[in-house]
Amino acid sequence: MLPLIFSFLILQVLTDDVPKPTGIFNYAQSIDHYSFSPIASEKFNQRIFEYNKHWDCGNGTVGPLFFYTGNEGPLESFYYNTGFMFEIAPKFGALIVFAEHRYYGESLPYGADSFTNKGLRYLSSTQATADFAEVINYYKKSKGITQVVSFGGSYGGMLTAWMRLRYPQLVDVALAASAPLPMMARSIVPKKAFFEIVTDDYEAADSTCPDIVRKGFSQLYEIVKTSGYEQTVTETFKLCKDFDKSQFDHLVGWTRNAMLMMAMVDYPYPAEFMGNLPAWPVKASCDLMLDEMKRSGNEMKAMAVGAGLLYNGTDGTKECFNIYDDFIECADITGCGTGPAAKAWDFQCCTEFQLATPSDNKTDMFPALDWNLDIASKYCQENYQVSPDPVGASRNYWSADFTAASNIIFSNGLLDPWHAGGVLEDVNPTVKAITIAEGAHHLDLRGANKDDPQSVIVARQQEVELITQWLGQKKGEETENDTEQDVEYYVEF
Fold first, then answer.
1. Is 115 helix (H, G, I), strand (E, B) or coil?
2. List 441, 442, 444, 452, catalytic entry
3. Catalytic pick from 200, 346, 416, 444?
4. What is the largest CA-CA distance in the chain?
């Protein structure tokens, strides 16, 4: 029986520029790729979205596979926010496939029990890349596809680069957008830290905004030492539940998370990727703070209004904020999101990934965050009975040394706080770095927009040129190597 089983799930179109999938499937995926125990034969349903309207598969030609390596969230979030793949697919005659990452969305190996400590034991990037390899192999074998281009942004970009490194026989070209691999592998110390770049973004919007945030946090720290602070903080931040000191650290995290998320998705037009946000949300947040300063002259209130933009969006329908619904504290100090996906990403940060360095209140506008490997290990042991492996990802993925790699594009937007941890210079003639001056988090993977800055337009053109060049070289090699015998371009697992 074929491992793909059609599902009649109907999806709501989330954006105007990305069409609904032409097919939604469940791939019967292996739970464990790395053992010979009985569990290795067990399967779970991995969701696959397919779009075939641009696929050239007639008259003796078979177009390439454009494959998106799913991130830490439901597949819809990435499918409907990656318009670039759909826009360039006609040029290449490509079949588009998005594969959901195990333990996210509906691809749950053990259903509701997937998020127990026992159920989480098969959640890792190495298992996920093996999943993607199986799916790609299936498409190559069943469809006669000979060329594959992998795409991904953020963690998905890391996975896409790793697919080219680990499975070069399956993936010919990789476009890894906003993938902070060198920082994750501890192979570099970024010239600027994550929270410092967030601060720079706010300073670029208006030089007074970082100082408003600094003073706002300072006032918050001082006011909780006074009598009657509960009502003041509750009213200032428009909290749904009365505030007390047990909520203090969470409120600080909620506020910090809002600022850094808006810096990540500082797109030049309204978008709904991480919230219903206006164009240039950092500037919009800064403008709200400046307006509040004119009204009340109170930095803490101004900071609260600026942070509220992320959680209340442009429609502003929330009358109050439930900070525990809006924000979940976790092992990733830059945030884990909300819902079941937050649990899965928290676990991955407790095992494989230790990313950004903490805020220090010297180079950035945020309170100093007491966070290190010992504190993370204590948290992870208490929650999952595991400890972070600070060198595991580096050991598994070449320690971010790409000198022997080929056909990888690393793109980074310089507004994105993650860019300092990425590949910013060409490594060799076929491992290329593209920087986007006015770009936020994987802006280049989004669909074209009339408000796009020239830097992202140029970046996309460069990406298309490189993909065309490298696929052309692969096609030439295939033609040279053709014999009278059939050549198989897949691997039997």
1. helix
2. 441
3. 416
4. 87
Q: Supply the DSSP string of 269-331, one letter for each residue.
A: S-B-SSSSB-SSHHHHHHHHHHHHHHHH--HHHHHHHHHHHHHHTTTT--SSB-HHHH----S
Distance, CA of 366 to CA of 411 (rounded, Å): 28
Rounded Cα distance, 407 and 466, in Å: 8
**Which pLDDT does position 481 carry in this prediction?**
58
Q: Which of 154, 285, 359, 411 is catalytic?
A: 154
Residues of the chain with confidence (pLDDT) below 70? 1-16, 186-189, 398-399, 474-493
CA 49, 19, 125, 405 dihedral sign is positive
Please report where in the chains the tokens 């010239």 appear, as a residue: 191
Reply yes or no on whether 441 is catalytic: yes
Give per-residue pLDDT as tens, 263-297.
999 999 999 888 889 999 999 999 999 999 999 99
Burial of 328 (0-12, 13-18, 19+ CB in 10 A): buried
Q: Where do we find the tokens 């946090």?
A: 217
Reply yes or no on whether 419 is catalytic. Answer: no
Find out whether 201 and 436 touch, Cβ atoms under 8 Å. no
- DSSP of 159-210: HHHHHHHH-TTT-SEEEEES--HHHHTTS---SS-HHHHHHHHHHHH-TTHH
Residue 154 known to be catalytic: yes
Spatial distance between the Cα atoms of 425 and 334, rounded to a whole number of angstroms: 25
Q: How far apart are CA 199 and CA 365, in angstroms?
A: 6
